[in-house]
Amino acid sequence: MKSKKLFFIFVIVTANIFVSAIVTSDPCLLPVFSGPGANQFERFYFDKSTKTCKKFIYGGVWGNENNFQTEAECKQRCAFYING
Fold this sequence. Notes:
- This protein is an alpha+beta fold and about 80 residues long.
- The protein has one domain (about 1-84): Irregular (Factor Xa Inhibitor), CATH 4.10.410.
- Helix content is about 40%, strand content about 15%.
- The chain is built from 3 helices and 2 strands.
- The protein has helices at about 1-25, 70-75, 80-84, and strands spanning about 40-45, 50-60.
- The protein has a two-stranded antiparallel ribbon with strand order 1-2.
- β1 and β2 (about 50-60) form a beta hairpin.
- The longest helix is centred in the N-terminal third of the chain and has 23 residues, at about 1-25.
- It is flat, with a radius of gyration of 18 Å.
- Belongs to the venom Kunitz-type family. 03 (sub-Kunitz) subfamily.
- GO terms for molecular function: serine-type endopeptidase inhibitor activity.
């Protein structure tokens, strides 16, 4: 009986980790991150609280995947969240 409980806990924890990895790997759910750097590239990010693509200045170094070159690209990639 104890081994069944442990197995059940293992399955739940593993599933939770897997789902978390999927959710956080979606660029549309990541926070905006302008990154360091002296450059000033105009880019767009998806703001999940307003469900819109917004302009920001990208420094050119690091950043994350919530960084689109055009507003159209942002809207296309995050259409699922925009259209809900």
